[in-house]
Each structure stands twice: as C-alpha cells, then as structure tokens.
C-alpha cells in the first residue's frame, strides 16, 4: 500500500515537472520571438515608447523640436492622428514664457494663422507687433517643430535680457499642432481675434471633407472682433472665386476689402506675395473685414 502511494507521489512530481518544463519552453519561444522581432525591426519597442511620450507632449498643446520628429511618421499617419488637446487644456503659457502668468497668459492671443505652411510668414510679421500675441496652427508636426525651432533661435539672437520679457522680439509668437483645422475657432472666445489668416486647401489635397465657406464664415465671425480682418489664402484663382462666392453669402457678417486697400496693409507688405512656405506661385488672397 505504501509502495502504491510512493509511486503515485513520484508520478505526480513528474507530471508537475513536465508542466513546468512545457511552460518554460513556451516562455522561451515567446521571448525568443520578441527578441527576433526586435532584431528585424530594431526600433519597434522604442517606437512605442516614443509614441507614448509624444502623445503626452501633444496634450500640452505644444510640439517642440525634439518631439516633432517622433510625431512625424508619414503623411497618412499624420492625417489619421487624433486631436488630443481640448481647448481648455491647451498650454498657451508654454509657448509664450514672456507673457506667462502661471499657466495662463497675461494677454490673450489676438492674431491667428491656421493652415499649412503659414509659420514663416507669421515669423516675419511678429516683430511688427511685439506686444501682440499671435499663434500659428498647423496640422503637420514637422512644420510645427521647425517653426518653433526658428522662433527659439530668433529669441536667443535678439534677447535683450537673460529672462524672456514682453517687448523682446519674437516672444509673442508660437506654433501649435492642430490636426483638425476646422476646430481652430473653438480655442478662442467671442470677439477675441483682431486678425485671422487661413490657408484654404484645395479639395484634392485633403482626405476629410473640408468645412464649407459658409461654415468658415460663421465660425470665425464669432471669434473675430468688429473691424477685425480675415485673410484667406488660395492655391488658384478658381479656388478663390468659388470660396468667395460662398463666403459672401454671409454678407451680414463680413465686408469684402478691395485689393487696392489690402495691398497697402503693413502685414501683407511684410510677407510679400508668398505667404505660404514652399509655395512656387504667388498666393491668391481675398480679404474681408468683420462688420
């Protein structure tokens, strides 16, 4: 009887050992597979880590020179990126240290440029209004990073004091990632903006359906002060005419500014005919004034 118990116990031990060995083998195979996968794609695991770090950076609302490379990916991935920052959580103070008052700004943003490639043009405008805060919204993380990098270099070059001070050149401008450009007006309060630059993309260059000219007219009218100016930039004359025809439907909100008047505008004189970075042609521009 005792012998039977001994044999049963022995067989039980063997069974347990077999299970342990099998589990260890499976674990080894899985680990080996992950190691092999990482050898084939060395940056796989670091990519996931960087993506998490970049998402946290984007939640701050400011794409820096360091994280913009990690965020870039390819064009398709950029279009599919979800906008994570809510208007109330956008960290304005991080972009304008000279104007920062805690986590808020001592003065609100008054000039906005939203759309592709407007950063360089706005950098040329910034010194004209050193006490006026202006923001650049772009859907391309690389463009945002490059714009902020140029701004930081110019701030250092023209710094008059060791600390950022209001009035020092280029302290009043910063770029932010804005994946969905249609949401840009949501980041401002009623009558907050005095000047708005919007790059209107051609329908062929966007995957998502763009907001109509009427929608753009109404959404920006709510955040533009009376007498404020709306500059719309186009890639072709046909696109301008189509947009203007629809935009003018909201005639009770805006007044079209004749070309002979807006060409004398000091802001347009600063940027010249090529407001957009990388443009091979003169930008087609239409201008309206808020009633």
TrEMBL record:
<feature type="compositionally biased region" description="Polar residues">
    <location>
        <begin position="65"/>
        <end position="86"/>
    </location>
</feature>
<feature type="region of interest" description="Disordered">
    <location>
        <begin position="62"/>
        <end position="86"/>
    </location>
</feature>
<keyword id="KW-0472">Membrane</keyword>
<feature type="transmembrane region" description="Helical">
    <location>
        <begin position="7"/>
        <end position="37"/>
    </location>
</feature>
<dbReference type="InterPro" id="IPR029063">
    <property type="entry name" value="SAM-dependent_MTases_sf"/>
</dbReference>
<keyword id="KW-1133">Transmembrane helix</keyword>
<keyword id="KW-0812">Transmembrane</keyword>
<protein>
    <submittedName>
        <fullName>Uncharacterized protein</fullName>
    </submittedName>
</protein>
